[in-house]
């Protein structure tokens, strides 16, 4: 099969022929219909993830059709259209037994712990625990994006932040994850305020559900908090840092009303200093969101089936597999790349 492949971190990947994957006894092989280009793929290629062994094929957001199954797979068969969380749970450890497969101690991640979906086919492990059926009516790009950014955002808002209709939501950073969070917050009936340094990103946020937007490019954290407070005088019920910087996390935390909830989705390049005085004084909650187990997907799928959430609207470009290496390199060098890129290996 054809796959995007690299054997050295930071060096441009190649498109080359590699051996077809083979399913493990509890796994499947999926022919990829679409796969999202995510900044997590960039971090992996840059060598920021210690779990990647070289040579490597990236890619972790996907939808496709099962082409082969292991002999222990019971719930799925060849021809099924499926997606999967990017954190694939083992289904057997204490975390999985408690329903928390997103923090499985034996987790596998396509595109990180093993070869991923920037390829014509991808192997997925522990299929009965992790695969999610995808209706034929779902747009391929929309279905692919459910594996990472939309699932992480949905769980962050619903299961971690416990966001309710009518509450205020602050989203800091309007890239792919941030815009997913904006869209989901709007679909849930929240009043969404978006913060970014780029007016184009903020315009996208308005288009996808933000009722107010704050450009923080020429403001300190304190000045941006003041602007957010002007937009939401009662304070913010739930804040989300979708970028992962010390300043963006502080902005989210300091904007909260007493007993508000901050959800950290963006990954930090280094451990940040957190304004713990505000956390203690306001009895604030700081919560992480690291994917979502397959059994929690029905609520997210229902929003899409009802037409209240349209992940495909975030997609601004669909490219062939041959263009993926350059797209990966371009994203690494330009944080202003807007919208979402989807790779279609069939092109």
TrEMBL record:
<dbReference type="GO" id="GO:0008270">
    <property type="term" value="F:zinc ion binding"/>
</dbReference>
<dbReference type="InterPro" id="IPR013154">
    <property type="entry name" value="ADH-like_N"/>
</dbReference>
<dbReference type="InterPro" id="IPR036291">
    <property type="entry name" value="NAD(P)-bd_dom_sf"/>
</dbReference>
<feature type="domain" description="Enoyl reductase (ER)">
    <location>
        <begin position="8"/>
        <end position="342"/>
    </location>
</feature>
<dbReference type="Pfam" id="PF00107">
    <property type="entry name" value="ADH_zinc_N"/>
</dbReference>
<keyword id="KW-0560">Oxidoreductase</keyword>
<dbReference type="InterPro" id="IPR002328">
    <property type="entry name" value="ADH_Zn_CS"/>
</dbReference>
<keyword id="KW-0479">Metal-binding</keyword>
<dbReference type="Pfam" id="PF08240">
    <property type="entry name" value="ADH_N"/>
</dbReference>
<dbReference type="InterPro" id="IPR011032">
    <property type="entry name" value="GroES-like_sf"/>
</dbReference>
<dbReference type="InterPro" id="IPR020843">
    <property type="entry name" value="ER"/>
</dbReference>
<keyword id="KW-0862">Zinc</keyword>
<dbReference type="GO" id="GO:0016491">
    <property type="term" value="F:oxidoreductase activity"/>
</dbReference>
<dbReference type="InterPro" id="IPR013149">
    <property type="entry name" value="ADH-like_C"/>
</dbReference>
<comment type="similarity">
    <text>Belongs to the zinc-containing alcohol dehydrogenase family.</text>
</comment>
<dbReference type="InterPro" id="IPR050129">
    <property type="entry name" value="Zn_alcohol_dh"/>
</dbReference>
<protein>
    <submittedName>
        <fullName>Alcohol dehydrogenase</fullName>
    </submittedName>
</protein>
């Amino acid at each position: 099969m054809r796959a995007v492949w690299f054997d050295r971190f930071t060096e441009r990947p190649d498109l080359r022929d590699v051996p077809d994957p083979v399913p493990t006894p509890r796994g499947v092989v999926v022919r990829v219909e679409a796969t999202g280009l995510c900044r997590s793929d960039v971090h992996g290629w840059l060598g920021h993830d210690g779990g990647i062994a070289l040579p490597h094929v990236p890619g972790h957001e996907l939808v496709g059709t099962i082409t082969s199954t292991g002999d222990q797979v019971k719930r799925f068969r060849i021809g099924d259209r499926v997606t999967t969380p990017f954190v694939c749970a083992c289904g057997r450890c204490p975390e999985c037994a408690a329903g928390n497969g997103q923090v499985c101690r034996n987790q596998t991640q396509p595109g990180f712990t093993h070869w991923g979906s920037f390829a014509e086919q991808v192997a997925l492990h522990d299929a009965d625990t992790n695969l999610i059926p995808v209706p034929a009516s779902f747009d391929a790009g929309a279905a692919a994006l459910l594996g990472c950014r939309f699932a992480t955002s949905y769980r962050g808002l619903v299961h971690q932040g416990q966001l309710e209709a009518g509450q205020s939501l602050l989203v800091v950073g309007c890239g792919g994850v941030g815009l997913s969070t904006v869209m989901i917050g709007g679909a849930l009936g929240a009043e969404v305020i978006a913060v970014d340094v780029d007016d184009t990103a903020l315009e996208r946020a308005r288009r996808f559900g933000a009722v107010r937007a704050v450009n923080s490019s020429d403001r300190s954290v304190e000045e941006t908090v003041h602007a957010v407070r002007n937009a939401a005088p009662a304070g913010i019920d739930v804040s989300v840092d979708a970028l992962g910087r010390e300043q963006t996390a502080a902005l989210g935390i300091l904007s909260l009303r007493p007993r508000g909830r901050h959800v950290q989705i963006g990954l930090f390049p280094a451990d940040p200093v957190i304004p713990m005085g505000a956390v203690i004084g306001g009895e604030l909650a700081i919560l992480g969101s690291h994917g979502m187990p397959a059994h929690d997907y029905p609520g997210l799928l229902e929003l899409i089936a009802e037409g209240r959430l349209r992940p495909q609207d975030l997609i601004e470009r669909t490219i062939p597999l041959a263009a993926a290496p350059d797209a990966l390199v371009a994203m690494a060098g330009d944080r202003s790349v807007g919208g979402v890129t989807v790779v279609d290996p069939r092109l």
